[in-house]
Amino acid sequence: MDFTSGGGGGGGGNNELHNNQFYQCEENKPLLGEMSEGNNNNTGGPGGPGARLGAGGPCKRSLHHCSSSGMRYKLLHEGDIQVCVVKHPRTFLSKILTSKFLRRWEPHHLTLTDSSLTSATPTGYMETPLSYSAIEDLQLLSWDNAPKYCVQLSFPGGTVLLQAANSYLRDQWFHSLQWKKKIYKYRKVLNNPSRWDVVLKEIRALVDMALTSPLQDESIHQAPLHIISTLLAENSNLSTQDHENIIVAIAPLLENNHPPPDLCEFFCKHCRERPRSMVVIEVFTPVVQRILKHNMDFGKCPRLRLFTQEYILALNELNAGMEVVKKFVHSMHGPTGQCPHPRVLPNLVAVCLAAIYSCYEEFINSRDNSPSLKEIRNGCQQQNDRKPPMPLRLLRPEPPTPPPATLLPLSAHPGPPPPPPQPAPPPSNPAPSISIPITSPTPTPPLSPPPSEVNSSEILVEMERNNNSANNARRKGGPSGGDSEPNLIDCLLVSPAVNTLSIQLPAQADRVLGCFALILKMLSDYDDWRPALASLLQPIPFPKEALAHAKFTKELKYVIQRFAEDPRQEVHSCLLSVRSGKDGWFQLYSPGGVACDDDGELFASMVHILMGSCYKTKKFLLSLAENKLGPCMLLALRGNQTMVEILCLMLEYNIIDNKDTQLQIISTLESTQVGLRMYEQLCDRQRELKELQRKGGPTRLTLPSKSTDADLARLLSSGSFGNLENLSLAFTNVTSACAEQLIKLPSLKQLNLWSTQFGDAGLRLLSEHLACLQVLNLCETPVTDAGLLALSSMKSLCSLNMNSTKLTADTYEDLKAKLPNLKDVDVRYTEAW
Q1: CA torsion angle for 696, 700, 704, 710 (degrees, to 10)?
Q2: In this structure, what are the phi and psi dihedrals at residue 87, rounded to the nearest 5 degrees?
Q3: S-S: 694 plus which of 44, 289, 720, 817, CB 3.0-4.6 Å?
Q4: Residues paired with residue 130 on neighbouring β-strands, in sequence order
Q5: How many whole angstroms separate alpha carbon 7 and alpha carbon 734?
Q6: Rounded Cα gap, residues 320 and 50, in angstroms
Q7: How far is CA 494 from CA 357, 399, 488, 630, in A?
Q8: Cα–Cα distance between 731 and 724 in angstroms, integer?
């Protein structure tokens, strides 16, 4: 049977082929209804968008997924296939030459580009690419005597037959070619729009095609979105109604896909210009929810973060305001006590941090003359393209008297700043980079005037950049030119006379700051989010200008208070600095810190929770004695029990060496009833300790099994144990609490804690007080890496049993490197074994 009777591709003899069965996709159906006329006038009242956040509205319709067979295919971009081209017969001889018995098949490696079907070997049938626009029809051959597994492509003057190895590959080629051909057509149509009502119909058909395609590939949904984003970018003068109709039309594609960057810009513009539109609530809400749940890195697509930020600000513009934002945050967390989506919190925090940073961007750029985010987006990278440096805008008291002539004056004038006077030649030791006016002391200094508002053009602080390194080294007490960083608090506290510095924000920036600071407060109210939130905020990821802003630090104080009230160690431990030499929230909100606006209540709360955990250590007390002894004594004088306990521990652990300071602490304790009572208890403990450490008593001691912490304390208080060198508490019920008794044994060298409940907190205490310990048995105890790492300070250890503990290989290697005398180690039944 010749090819003419079997089905040519478009000639008069191919009617039989068209009447036979072939693959046909389900007819396209509209997915989304038109927005009602009244949607643009909805507000965030009880019946408006704010009350229907997350609920299905007129913009929602069910999705239609096709493929009658239910098969799914991956989009082909290239592949090997057999090719045969059949020209339309015009003479009797050509009919004979095109018969199925004389057809010639060629193997080709075909590539499906965006515009044509090309071969890697452009010879024979595929010498020239076959454009998608030239393909008139695309069918599957399925009649009885047709070649097996063939796809037919009809073009003017002939037919291309593609033969695959099996039916699955044939269908995959068919759907991939069909997709490429249609997407090429839509790209051409939408690149040259004429009537927008026609364009809207084409967009809906394009969306339907993507949703009903049996192909499963990321580009199936992304390609239509890129086409539409290009259309919107090139036609920015559309009406608001056209904007909303297009957004509604593409909404089904966004339910399972992130919008491309250009589309995010369009969405951001709509949120800014039409925050009360129903589209923001009913279309953007599921898109933002998906971004927060599934986005892994905003750094790869910062416009997703910007879109999320603008969406939240649009919610804040509704009548219900922050109540709508609160409902949105609650919907992201979920109704249960545990949020099922681990990426929601980090993404929300990233959005909040970026939004808060943007509020102070002008001040940050004024500080270092670096290009702003807007300038970077606009391609302004050159130094001469940027604005001249602006001074830092602050609110601070005016100095009571004129400064000396040799110093650069700090003044606040309501008008333009006067030209600064020329400084004197620098001496051999460079002067500090921030000059502070110093007034001569007088018996009755005049009251300082109230803080004056400073405009953006006023100069308050003159920084000499050439002297920064010398100033930092002078503050640290080190040589000039050192590479140590200046302390954050020292950078902010430009004068001891200035307790707080404030920055005046524009009205819009102030609203943005209030919105996202309140979101951080909401996040801190969820118990399951608080540990991760504390960890994310521990490095203080805010600009210095934000920490100098009184309104922001007051809002953030609630978050820090929530951390200080949380009994979990992984939460309140984040109040301390992330590493030594850096400031933490504990320093910023302590008396004298830039964020402290009370009399030390938050500071006392933080100290209380830290001392109640495993931070009752010499290191913590030593840092308080060096930096915060004055505030501790003041709060103790006012009857704060936590500070009274701190002062007693400083005396008990001999933290204070200066005798006069010790006497001052004792006087402070004796000035209140609670202090006097605790000091008398301290004296009693010291007398007992002297009796306990008096030479004498046994050298070896073993407690009976099932003994408790109270039994050990009772035993050690019964006599002298100054000679005790070997103590066995194996198979007893002692816990980390007994460490308070163990550190009182000055001669202890061997300690057996086998099969007890002694944990990490006890190990930390032992590591600071029992430096002479040589043998330690921790077999079958609940200690972890957190406590075992503290043993690295016990340089006398020569035998350590960590059998059946939660020791890891990294901690084991660290201990071996830091304990030079360690000879006998047992790590059986651990990860390090």
Answers
A1: 40
A2: -80, 150
A3: 720
A4: 117
A5: 91
A6: 7
A7: 22, 13, 11, 21
A8: 20
Q: What is the DSSP string of 447-471?
A: PPPPPB---TT-----B-GGGHHHH
114 alpha carbon, distance to own chain's centre: 38
For the record, the structure tokens of 705 come out as 């099994």
Query: CB-side exposure of 248: number of CA atoms within 13 Å?
Result: 26
Let me know: does 293 contact 341? Beta carbons within 8 Å: yes
**How many residues make up the chain in this entry?**
833
Q: Which residue has the tokens 């600009």?
A: 543
Q: In this structure, are residues 460 and 410 in contact, taking their beta carbons and an 8 Å threshold?
A: yes
pLDDT for the residue numbered 102? 58
Q: How far apart are CA 250 and CA 771, in angstroms?
A: 69
Query: Contact at 8 Å (CB) between 637 and 671?
Result: yes
pLDDT along the chain (833 residues), means of 10: 34 36 33 32 42 41 44 92 81 53 82 93 90 91 75 88 92 94 90 81 91 89 90 81 87 89 90 91 93 92 94 93 93 93 96 94 69 47 42 40 38 40 42 34 39 34 35 39 41 37 79 94 96 96 89 92 92 89 88 85 90 73 89 91 92 89 92 92 86 79 91 85 90 92 89 94 88 93 91 92 94 92 92 88
Q: What are phi and psi of 162, to 5 degrees?
A: -115, 120
Q: How far apart are CA 195 and CA 491, in angstroms?
A: 61
- Give CA separation, 40 vs 129, 318, 386, in Å: 49, 13, 40
